[in-house]
Structures are given as structure tokens and as C-alpha cells.
Amino acid sequence: MDDRGKSPQRTRSEPDRDPTIRVADIAVVATLIGNRTRLSMLNALVDERDLPATELARRAHVSTSTASEHLAKLVVGELVAVERRGRQRRYRLADAGVAAAVEALAAIAPMRPVQSLREATRGELLREGRTCYDHLAGRLGVQLTEALRRSGVIRRRDGAYILTSSGEKAIVDLGIDVTTLRQQRRAFAVPCLDWSERREHLAGALGAALAVRLFELSWIERVGRGRAATVTTDGLKALHSRFGLDLTNSERR
Length: 253
Known about the structure:
Blueprint lengths: L25 H8 L2 H13 L2 E2 H8 L3 H13 L3 E6 L2 E6 L2 H13 L8 H12 L1 E3 L2 E3 H13 L3 E4 L2 E4 L1 H9 L4 H5 L7 E4 L6 E4 H13 L3 E3 L6 E3 L1 H11 L10
Helix pairs in contact: 2-3, 3-4
């Protein structure tokens, strides 16, 4: 109360402060990801999942001490996790959501000219087919997702994908345990915007399991040491037979 015994009036510029209410502080993440050195290291971890500071420094073209400073900020910001193995500290993305955020930013970012033939070649390989952390992306991921929709394996509903009854049988016949996938704490089947194709590909537990299984069957394979992927000759035939997928314009081995 004031000197006259009256309660002070709250102005509109003084909102209620409830400590139990939380909102996303996007500015913090934007500051972390907005640095080119840190973004280079995040992209490297999207590529290979688990790397030491020395390798991340090489990828970002900075000294190891500089890389360590940036990595410390990413760890505090909970974008990156670190694990000690013997005398070495190895870094990885905190979870699949970080990879999805990096890909989503790439989908809205302006394109810049490539600076070397190596960069151009790598860029085209990634556009043709790649892993987006743990699921398939690029033309391969987008076209596979479209084939799954056309063949009735999945359907779009309420911002996510659902697995149809016939689709569940097709996925189980492929050797994937759908029951276990549904018990995971992550989303089961969700769309992920592809930065190179500007269309959706399948992510979530189902997308990850499908990618793992296609690698196991040797229907797709890695191209080089990064995350670029391509369909094998056996894969072309099998994916067309099972899901009607036509990749005649895609690169093959």
C-alpha cells in the first residue's frame, strides 16, 4: 500500500509473472546455431554422429582450443552431449530434434554459390540421397515417402503420418518390429521438411527403423565416409516391387 493507504494500480506494462509458466527461448538457440563455426560442427555431427574435438576442429577449420570453447557453449546450451571414452572426449548431438532443427533451418536459408568442385560434388550427392541424422532424406527419402503414401502404407493425418493396417503388415514383412517402435518415447511417424527438395520425408521412429533395415538388406549403401546414400541394384528392384518406388533417375552403383 502507498502513503494514502491505497493499493498501487498495476499498469498494463506489468504482466503477471508465474514461475511455473515456461515459453521457448528461441533467441538462445538462434545465437548458438547462428555462429558459422558452431554450425559447421553441428553439421559434422549430423553427418557422423560421434566425433572428438580434434576432428570437429578440422571440419570447422579452427584450432582445437577454439573448437573446445564453441563445443562447451553447445553443451551448456544442450544442443550437444559429450562422453568421455578413456582419455578422449567424444561429442554427439543431444538428440534427433537438434538434427531436425538444423535441417529445418537449411530449408529456409538462402542458397550460396559453391566454392569448389569437391563441395559441388558432395552437395549433389547429399541432394540425391542422405541420412538426416537417423532417417532417409534427399530425393531418395522424399521419393520413398511418396511411394509409401501412394501404396497405402502410410497416410497423413493431423500433422503426422499413420501406419495403415496393410502398411503395418508390409513393414513387419520387411523385418521391422512395429510394436517395439510404438513403445519408444519419440514420435512414431512424422514429416520432416527436406532442405534440398523442399518437400517432406518420413522421420520419427518408423523413419529411423526403415533406414536401418534398408542398410541391413543392402538395398541402400553409403557413398564415401559421410552421410550420402544411394540405392543399390538389388534395392532398385526390391523397392519397386514392394512399394512401387521408381528411382530410374537416381544415381545407382
